[in-house]
Design goal:
heterodimer, A: mainly beta, 22-stranded antiparallel β-barrel, five-stranded mixed β-sheet, 52 strands, globular, B: about 500 residues, mainly alpha, two-stranded parallel ribbon, two-stranded antiparallel ribbon, about 40% helix
Chain lengths: ~1000, ~500
């Protein structure tokens, strides 16, 4: 240190002297530095004449002006997150500089949970996705932004419903019964994973639980880090086993206030229609099958009648600015997304204030405050998967006899057929289901630099959500138990989650070779949920909403419920140290002790250690001669993480009250201990040719022990319940993840980046006692049918079905192996391979990018085809087109049955989004950085899967055991085209 | 404020907030420590209700009836395949994972737990007796179906495995339990509460079937057991609380709590208060276009239907009851529905979904492949449909023990001990009420047939067929079956967690 300072003291006057001596011959070059991909200004980029010791940095709008000594014809432009560029300025006084991101840039600082670290110091497997690399288009929740962007991360939009739920799996499913969703942490606030959106009361109300992250505005998110191995996730201890997703929101930048405006509008249509017979084909089929009834003479497309072109508008305004000691960013967002199914709609209003202050003369005291308020209003379509044989809107439309008008003759009101066939238009008209959720998150975090190295931080956050849902079905709908009665409900739910975190951060260069980055902390989390509902039946029609006059329902039909969740608290102590020796050898150790109310007296606390090491081989002298090798790092880690995402109340016996009785709800198990996953990870990070080509390869082996499972106890036992135990067996997930990024072209006018990731995953269950059924398949003729099992020696959720061996040529009946009396393990619904591809290209002011994702090696059960569009419908309802014209004529009486006939390969690759944009630049003095873009989402899917969309996950869970890979009459996926405009004022 | 002070105040907060004890508090449910406020009466209510699931159109009922010659659930093209579960029950090709067999076992044993739990909460002598009756009742049904009855003495620790009462052990247990509580049980009370006569009826079932539980393949019936049956029947008769109903369907009508004179033990259905799925009986047979619109499934077999004479009111008739539809055409609305069906409000002839006349045919197959697959099979409405009560819960109490059964059991015991004359008198007493001519003589075959006509779809047919040695024989849509089918298999998931159970012979 001393030597450096001495040198500085000597050099300083020297440089001043030199620059003064050259001053007479200097010239000025001005210009602007922008991000090559999205045209946003790059703030604080260093601009230096080549060879000069001084330079300047860009202002808040990316502009610079630098004096260039004569004889210097090259400017060097660099910024932390971008690839360094050298620009020829011969005979130029103004230049436009486009910087491309260097996602493998080593000085990059990443958020790693309770602190930050230089990316080069990481020993764990962490994927980082910056805002500019997010999926482009209209999204309602942040998990959709990273679909296909990070190796080992599977994101499934369960249905096409706006604001609908997603399935996120990081490195596969490591649990059988407890949750498999990763932990989401927003600006240091860990989320509970739930939302206050109440469920519907009654089978016909929409069953999609909605995405609990809907309250975040994707436009406010600056970056998302995905922590995958134990070295990275163990700091989150008991909630780290499924991986951790850290979301950082945008902050104000110091400088004059700016207003960022973005607006977009998009149109959406059905991505794919299932092929059913049209009127003429139906008539022909009736004739072929000798059916004398069922032809009503028309030609009707019922699916067309329930779908529409959905219009979406999205506006965001963000005001940001401040000084070095007080920055702020206020953003407002409005989203109005019309679903492609008529009547369905998702509206979101967001307001987000983030401010960062520094106090005291020494600036040692700081304060971060974030306040977020969101309102989401949904109108939900009558699409539930928990419907009886009368089906939901989708099946009703698919099955509608295409020769029969949907309308009463000569009117525009829906035809009521009577019986059990429901007119999809009637279903739409006579149905209402609205869910409104209000979310307020306040997060206040003062910190104090006790010394230069030691910082204390206190974080207090409250996440409060209130949800209300109202629904009704008119008595005019001819559904069982609805007709002439009607039904309505109101449901309420509130959630309050509180967090208190104390951390001490110590960051010190101990000697010139040793750097220590350490944190210790304490955290207390309290989750609280309450709710109630009322429902009733037997209403009259007088123009009032049923749910506004529930008091008129018949007393016997009324149902009332209320609940308060058991107290759920988590108290934790944690610590982490990252030691860097000579920038070559890195070691990270973390430890967390978690105590939870969910566990019994005997085992309140669980302990989760991890250790990671890394070797920056490229820093070694023997590699210094290898000029193309910019960076080579070898990593290895081991650690234990936990999973406590199972319901409270498993350790103690509980008693459930009914109006006159009481019954024991369960057996308590005071010996329950934490499920833990031991993960071993080995990886290599490399970058070559001046960071133009970079990548990572990781191998992981994750073994989950003491698997928490709700096992059938030996009967007699409390009615219908199971007991939580730790299984003797294991779940093993292993795999390889490869990420590659290439900067294929990088000239002044043109850049082209191509990146991709591929993951190979495998999982296996052992030690389960007996087997457990899940994967409920539904529909007529599919009562009490479970298609999947949890069983030792097979992948999680393995398909267990009759084997279909074709149709009998003579009878037209299905042939099953062993007459259908034997069921077979028939493949896994877990994808074996995940693929993500991203590429961006820019030429002068034009930019284009694409994002693709795909999954391979798994099987989906097409329950829609199996039980909704079978041949037996002919004569009364519609059938799938593919059933007609085959080599064997299927008998009309052939029973549709759960078998491998409808088990299809789920392989797909999807053009998830593609964007072209044009950077107009500044218009006049006030409009700056105007950027116009056209984005297509879900443009096409390459797949052999015959259902709506191979990206699907209809909930078929049984007794809390989740299912995977079922499609059953879901809200269909949409394809959309969006026109967007961004500018700064 | 000095920086140090700030630091120390934060440090204080750190310590302050470290004090949570992580105690779990259930706010909508009660835990053991607060369960002191609970009364045995509350647990007893739930114990009674715990029988609704297995019995009222539940798994015990399905496994007793669908495995017999009374019910068939044909696979009707797109409907009722349900992974082959109904065909397996009818054709005796079930295995240890058959849904109804697993569900029946678990449901009965959950009810046993609920009944035992009453005894943990300081019950009165009467409450304890009622709970022990319910427990004996569930043990009897597990014994009947599975031979091995897990019996849990420790209700707290699930890791202590239940012991197994096997065969005659279970018989002895039930007899000693009932004898211990008989004096405490009340003489009178509603049929849905345990009473002396309900306990006696249970004992009759046990004694009558005791020979079966000793040896199902070739049962012998000890005279002493038969004497017990007769003596218990006489006690019930002597109580003077019951008589045969003039109108057969009054026993099962929505207000049967009042109209039935025969009901000894029932499951209580009172919409808005308590109840089970009695509605399933109507829905599972009713065609889509009938009222109530149903699921168009279960039927009876034509051979069984043909055991009835036309005048037998048990076969069906036009039955008027509170809330019944106008029925202007005086169409049959209860019992066995066969032939053209009518709208019971307008008398219009009904059609099926393809527009053909809705004519239920006697012919029925396990797999229907014809064009008429929607309408095959005779449909059975034993519980007259409660139109007056909207919603899923209906008012008809579910009948478990009734007087005619007591008389028939007594007749059987007499017959099995050589008193055919006494048996004939009893059988003919019933037949006279039901509108058929008296029999001239009665033998075991005639008695079994009479039990079928009287007790059809009440959940006893499998037991009766086994006791009369007919269960393994071939009948319509069922070939002769193997000896192993006399017992249901122990559910494989229970075998996996309870080392005190062994799989029943033939199912490994």
């Amino acid at each position: 240190m001393l030597r450096k300072r001495l040198l500085h003291v000597i050099l300083m006057p020297l440089s001043i002297f030199i620059s003064f001596s050259l001053l007479a011959q200097d010239r000025f070059v001005t210009g602007k530095v922008t991000d090559a991909k999205d045209g946003t200004p790059v703030v604080g980029a260093s601009v230096q004449p080549k060879g000069a010791k001084t330079g300047t940095s860009t202002s808040a709008d990316g502009n610079f002006s630098v004096s260039v000594p004569s004889g210097t014809n090259t400017l060097v432009i660099s910024s932390a997150e971008y690839v360094r560029q050298e620009i020829d300025i011969t005979n130029k006084t103004f230049i436009d500089v486009l910087l491309t991101s260097a996602s493998s840039g080593l000085s990059e600082v990443v958020v790693i949970g309770y602190g930050t670290a230089r990316k080069k110091d990481l020993t764990g497997a962490v994927s980082s996705v910056q805002a500019k690399d997010f999926n482009k288009g209209t999204y309602t929740s942040p998990d959709q932004l990273i679909q296909g962007k990070a190796a080992g991360v599977l994101v499934i939009n369960n249905t096409g419903q706006p604001g609908g739920a997603t399935t996120v799996r990081i490195r596969g499913s490591s649990s059988i019964r407890s949750g498999n969703q990763p932990l989401f942490v927003v600006d240091g606030v860990p989320l509970s994973g739930g939302s206050a959106r109440p469920g519907g009361r009654g089978g016909q109300f929409g069953s999609d639980g909605g995405n609990p992250l809907n309250y975040l505005n994707p436009n406010d998110i600056a970056s998302i880090e995905i922590l995958k191995d134990a070295s990275a996730t163990a700091i989150y201890g008991s909630r780290g086993a499924n991986g951790v997703v850290l979301i950082a929101t945008k902050r104000g930048k110091s400088g004059a206030p700016t207003i960022d405006v973005s607006a977009s509008t998009s149109v959406a249509n059905v991505l794919k229609q299932l092929e059913v017979l049209d009127g003429n084909e139906y008539r022909q089929a009736l004739k072929d099958y000798g059916q004398t009834t069922g032809d009503f003479g028309g030609n009707v497309d019922a699916f067309d009648a329930i779908t529409r072109t959905g219009l979406t508008q999205n506006y965001n305004v963000a005001v940001g600015g401040g000084t070095e000691n007080g920055r702020y960013r206020l953003s407002l967002g409005y989203l109005d997304q019309e679903g492609i199914i008529k009547t369905s709609n998702f509206k979101k209003y967001t307001a987000n204030l983030s401010s960062n202050f520094k106090f005291l003369e020494s600036k040692k005291l700081g304060l971060d405050i974030n306040i977020l308020a969101t309102q989401t209003n949904e109108q939900i379509a009558p699409i539930s998967t928990f419907v009886g044989f009368e089906g939901n809107l989708i099946s009703q439309a698919l099955q509608w006899n295409p020769t029969l008008s949907l309308f009463k003759p000569g009117t525009d009101s829906a035809l009521n057929l009577g019986g059990t066939t429901i007119n999809p238009l009637g279903q739409l008209n006579y149905f209402e289901d609205k869910a409104n959720v209000t979310t307020i998150i306040a997060n206040i975090a003062p910190y104090y630099k006790i010394t230069n190295e030691l910082e204390y931080k206190f974080q207090y956050s409250v996440n409060r959500q209130v949800g209300i849902r109202k629904g009704q079905v008119n008595r005019l709908l001819n559904a069982q138990n609805i007709e002439n009665r009607g039904v309505a409900f109101i449901g309420n739910e509130e959630q309050t989650n509180t967090q208190i975190t104390n951390t001490l951060n110590y960051n010190k260069q101990i000697t010139s070779d040793f750097n220590l980055n350490a944190v210790v902390g304490h955290e207390w989390l309290i989750y609280d949920t309450k709710g109630s509902f009322i429902s009733g039946q037997d209403f009259t029609n007088d123009g009032l909403n049923y749910y506004d006059k529930l008091f008129t329902s018949s007393p016997a039909s009324r149902q009332v419920g209320s609940f308060a969740s058991p107290t759920t608290e988590l108290q934790s102590y944690f610590g982490r140290a990252i030691i860097n020796y000579k920038d070559k050898y890195l070691i990270t150790g973390t430890f967390r002790a978690d105590g939870s109310t969910k566990f019994g007296e005997n085992n309140k606390y669980g302990y989760f250690p991890s250790v990671g090491i890394a070797w920056n081989a490229s820093q070694e002298s023997f590699l210094s001669g290898v000029s193309f090798l910019k960076n080579l790092k070898v990593r290895a880690s081991w650690g234990k993480t936990g999973n406590q995402e199972f319901p409270s109340g498993a350790s103690l016996p509980r008693y459930i009250l009914s109006p006159t009785g009481v019954r024991q709800a369960n057996f308590g198990n005071p010996d329950l201990i934490w499920e833990s996953s031991e993960t071993t990870n080995a990886g290599i990070d490399f970058s070559l040719f001046n960071n133009r080509f970079s990548g990572s390869i990781d191998y992981f082996y994750k073994k989950t022990n003491d698997v928490l499972f709700e096992q059938t106890p030996a009967a007699p036992s409390p009615g219908g319940t199971k007991v939580w135990v730790n299984l003797d067996g294991n779940i093993i997930n292993k795999g390889v993840e490869i990420t590659l990024n290439g900067n294929l072209l990088n000239t002044q006018d043109m850049t082209w980046n191509l990146g991709g990731n591929v993951s190979f995953l495998q999982n296996n269950v052992s030690g389960l006692v007996g087997f457990y059924e899940t994967g409920e398949l539904r529909g007529q003729g599919f009562s009490d049918v479970r298609g999947q099992r949890m069983v030792s020696g097979q992948p999680l959720n393995v398909w267990y079905l009759r084997r279909f061996d074709g149709l009998d040529k003579n009878t037209g009946q299905s042939i099953y192996a062993d007459g259908g009396n034997t069921l077979f393990y028939s493949g896994s619904p877990n994808p074996k391979t995940l693929v993500g591809i991203a590429s961006d290209f820019s030429y002068k002011k034009f930019a284009a990018s694409i994002g693709m994702n795909g999954t391979f090696g798994h099987y989906i059960f097409n329950n829609t085809a199996a039980s909704v569009l079978g041949i037996g419908n002919l004569g009364t309802r519609n059938i799938a087109k593919e059933l007609i014209g085959g080599s064997v004529k299927e008998a009309i009486s052939n029973a549709p049955a759960p078998s491998t006939r409808n088990l299809e390969k789920g392989n797909y690759i999807k053009m998830a989004n593609a964007t072209i944009g044009y950077r107009v630049g500044n218009i006049g003095k006030s409009v700056r950085n105007l950027y116009i873009s056209l984005t297509g989402q879900n443009l096409f899917v390459i797949t052999k899967y015959t259902g709506f969309d191979p990206e699907v996950n209809t909930d078929g869970g049984v007794d809390g055991i989740p299912s995977l890979g079922i499609e059953y009459i879901p809200y269909p996926s949409a394809r959309s085209i969006q026109l967007g405009i961004n500018f700064t004022l | 404020m000095k920086p140090n002070k700030i630091f120390f105040s934060f440090l204080f907060m750190l310590i302050f907030f470290s004090c949570t004890k992580l105690e779990e508090d259930f706010r909508s449910e009660l835990e053991q420590s607060s369960s002191g406020s609970l009364t045995a009466a509350q647990f007893l209510t739930s114990a009674y209700e715990s029988l609704n699931g297995p019995f009222q159109w539940g798994d015990v009922w399905h496994s007793q009836e669908h495995s017999s010659d009374e019910i068939i659930a044909p696979t009707r093209g797109p409907d009722w395949d349900d992974n082959g579960q109904w065909r397996a029950l009818h054709a005796h090709t079930w295995n240890a994972n058959q849904g109804q067999i697993v569900g029946g076992f678990n449901g009965l044993l959950s009810a046993q737990f609920a009944a035992s739990n009453v005894l943990q909460f300081n019950p009165s002598a009467l409450e304890a007796a009622e709970a022990r009756f319910l427990r004996a009742f569930t043990i009897y049904w597990v014994l009947d179906g599975y031979d091995q009855v897990p019996y849990r003495e420790d209700l707290k620790n699930f890791k202590i495995l239940p012991k197994t009462l096997k065969g005659l052990e279970a018989v002895d247990f039930i007899i000693s339990e009932i004898n211990a509580i008989l004096a405490t049980l009340p003489d009178t009370g509603p049929a849905y509460k345990a009473s002396k006569n309900a306990a006696r009826a249970l004992l009759m079932k046990v004694y009558l079937n005791k020979g079966v539980y000793a040896n199902r393949a070739t049962p012998t019936f000890a005279p002493a057991d038969m004497a017990q049956v007769i003596s218990l029947a006489d006690q019930i008769i002597a109580s003077n609380k019951y008589s045969l109903n003039d109108a057969y369907f009054d026993i099962f009508a929505p207000n049967n709590e009042v109209t039935s004179k025969e009901n000894i033990y029932t499951l209580w259905n009172k919409p808005g208060t308590t109840g089970g799925n009695v509605r399933g009986n109507a829905f599972s047979v009713s065609h889509y276009n009938q009222n109530p619109g149903g699921w168009n499934g279960f039927s009876t077999l034509s051979d069984f239907y043909e055991k009835f004479q036309a005048t037998d009111q048990r076969r069906g008739l036009k039955y008027t009851y509170p809330g019944s539809l106008p029925n202007p055409g005086n169409r049959q609305n209860v019992g066995f529905l066969v032939g053209q069906q009518y709208n019971l409000t307008t008398d219009a002839a009904l059609k099926d979904r393809k527009g053909a006349p809705l004519i239920f045919t006697p012919e029925v197959k396990l797999r229907e492949t014809g064009d008429n697959l929607e309408v095959t099979g005779i449909r059975v409405h034993k519980y007259p449909y409660d139109y007056a009560t909207a919603g899923d819960q209906k008012d008809n109490d579910w009948v478990l023990f009734r007087y005619a059964d007591v008389l028939l059991m007594k007749a059987e015991a007499m017959l099995r001990t050589g008193n055919a004359t006494g048996a004939l008198l009893l059988v003919n007493e019933i037949r006279a009420k039901r509108g058929v001519l008296p029999l001239l003589a009665v033998d075991l075959t005639a008695l079994l047939d009479e039990r079928g006509r009287e007790m059809y779809w009440e959940g006893y047919r499998r037991q009766d067929l086994i006791r009369f040695g007919r269960f393994l024989q071939a009948w319509q849509e069922k070939p002769a079956s193997e000896a192993k089918n006399l017992l249901f298999p122990i559910p494989s998931n229970q075998l996996a967690v309870n080392a005190n159970l062994t799989q029943n012979p033939g199912y490994n």
